[in-house]
Task: structure prediction
Amino acid sequence: MGIQPVSRENEMIQVESLTKQFGTFRAVNGISFNIARGEILGLLGPNGAGKTTTLRMLTGFLKPTSGTIRVAGQPMSDQGLAVKRMMGYLPESAPLYHDLLVFDYLRYVAEIRGLKAGARTERIRRLAEICQINDVMHKPIGVLSKGYKQRVGLAHAMMSDPQILILDEPTSGLDPNQIVEIREIIRQIGREKTVVLSTHILPEAEATCDRILIIHQGAIVADGATDQIKRSAAGGHRIHLSIANADPGAVRSRLATIDGVAEVITEASVNGVLAVVLVCHGEADLRGPVYREVRHTDWDLLEFYQETQTLETIFRKLTRED
Ligand code: ATP
Result:
């Protein structure tokens, strides 16, 4: 599966042959990908796949062993600090001061981020709205639920209004309601920002991200929108039909003429119903052409469906231990 064709001016982050070696162990193994402006990209992979290591290199916290990262056209290595300023980072377990009230904590973050005194309160008010923490601003962080703590962490990461947000497992340890809430906030933020998040939860990636990179043992094994990944990982898709009142030879020759159909497999059952499988190549949806072809016959179409692989099946197939 190839890298998305993104025009150069639309690329926010360009990663080329990125590698990170810890001693003799290669945690990230020469990965390349681009992230478009305004895209929500999910790094999906099992534990130990190299997601956190990749995110830490993207944020500049970890120096790559080799490879390059460019942010808005600037090489990370030359413009470390300037590039870091464009990013907000929410680490997996964001450190928060539990004794402080949420408002005081965010005011402190605003101060150390160098926001001018007059602008701090307005920025905090805006972040409270975006991250939906208005009702806990005067509570100590220590008493907040994990979901609210995560929202405060998000507000922290967004304090300097960064163009890029890097979120490491933003929903880890949250209950299903909190997951939905954080997901909605991230999607909202993603309307204006470039967001890169990591997760090992499939429905999470599917529901939140515009595009997914599946990472396994430090390498990218799939890259694309979820639909695209499903279609290409399936190695072509299949359409199933049950047809009565038809000659198998006629079915095979007629359906084989449809553009995109690679093979027609027929199996007759005892009751005279023909089970037909169309093996299709390419990514085009052939249900329309198949239906139109059948409509011109006197066959009785009893069943008609397209086989779809779930992202979960694909993920398991791609990330099984060798
Ligand atoms: P998880 O979901 O468990 O956080 P991950 O995909 O984020 O997994 P990483 O944390 O990037 O994975 O780790 C990738 C591999 O690199 C793991 O095998 C991990 O043990 C190893 N690793 C990470 N950091 C270091 C380090 N500082 N020194 C040595 N090995 C490390």
About this structure: The chain has three domains: 1-86+162-224, 96-159, 234-313. The mean pLDDT is 88. Residues 96-159 form one domain.
